[in-house]
Design brief:
Elements lengths: L1 E4 L10 E4 L10 E10 L1 H8 L6 H4 L12 E9 L11 E5 L8 E4 L4 E3 L6 H5 L2 H14 L7 E5 L4 H12 L3 E6 L4 H6 L4 E4 L12 E6 L6 H6 L1 E9 L12 H10 L16 H12 L7 E6 L3 H9 L6 E5 L3
Parallel strand pairs: 8-9, 8-11, 9-10, 11-12, 13-14
Antiparallel strand pairs: 1-2, 3-4, 3-6, 3-14, 4-5, 5-7
Bound molecules: NADP nicotinamide-adenine-dinucleotide phosphate.
NADP nicotinamide-adenine-dinucleotide phosphate binds next to helix 4, helix 5 and strand 9.
Amino acid sequence: MKAIVQDTYGGPDVLVARTIAEPTPKDGEALVAVRAAALHIGDLMLMQGEPFVMRLGAGLRRPRKHIPGFDFAGVVASVGADVSGVQPGDEVFGETNGGSCAEYVVATPDKIAPKPARLTFEEAAAVPVSGATALKGIRDVGKVEGGHRVLINGATGGVGIYAIQIAKALGAEVTAVCGPGNAQLARELGADHVIDYTRDDYTRGEARYDLILDNVANHSLADARKAVAAGGSYITNSARSEGRWFGAVGRMMHAGVVSLFVPKQGRPFYSPVRRQDLLDLTGLIEGGELRPVIDRTYPLAETAAAIDYVAGGHASGKTVITVAG
Ligand SMILES: NC(=O)c1ccc[n+]([C@@H]2O[C@H](COP(=O)([O-])OP(=O)(O)OC[C@H]3O[C@@H](n4cnc5c(N)ncnc54)[C@H](OP(=O)(O)O)[C@@H]3O)[C@@H](O)[C@H]2O)c1
């Protein structure tokens, strides 16, 4: 099969197109013919091997995972033993640890679900990791309810586009923080208010919020908490940071410790994709309350350019790879 492969850590030029053997599904796995994949910052970090602390799990000198991509949508080609609820021919979407920038990928049924009927494969691939992260942050950790005032910092990137819509679906009043070029998109997705971060700093305004979901982490935790209403919380999930050794790990640990003592500081969260999340997201999509936004689509052979675009940190929605037409 055709795949994008990396043998070493480094910049986009470590990603090369190669023909390699198709994976074989083990017991409990499905083999999926990938129609589209999507990228996020995790792919950039694994390509670079940074922050270095991540290499403790990802491979010290070279990556254990050779193919980029976690998100995918495609058609089940075969299933291993002990797989139920998924069969060859099913159109599915989900998350894999195997690398979705390839013609075939293996995945476990607990991380895949039927593709939402109204979405194309490209649109469906744009949902799993970012959609599940937004769902976890807004619904499960943030416990957003009708009438809550929610601010989303970094509101029009991969996670933000879903966070705006999920918060609106739960009845919140949503303030989106984004650059001037994305204000219109934020409003189209349902934001009631938009703050242009190039002109205004939400931590210095008068408004207070019941939940702040921070995808950018460009303020100190203490400053960000100033904008939280009594009884509300600030949660950050950002992994972007200049530090090459620890990246955002230090900030996340700091937030975790502070959250034990400071009421407005929520714990950082990590959101592995679960089948139930995909089903819940599908419910919102089929109900017309949630839609993916694709910024750019690249062919498989241009995956390196796509990751370079993600690295810029200014995508309007998701960056998608078309694997097979
Ligand atoms: N916890 C988890 O399980 C999990 C899973 C996935 C992602 N994440 C994390 O979530 C974060 C966001 O990911 P993403 O995929 O949404 O990133 P992204 O697609 O790169 O989007 C980042 C957004 O931030 C905005 N932005 C840039 N500078 C800003 C500033 N100074 N103030 C406010 N907004 C600013 C950009 O808007 P403009 O283009 O308008 O500048 C862009 O839309 C990442 O750090 C990622 O590591 C966590």
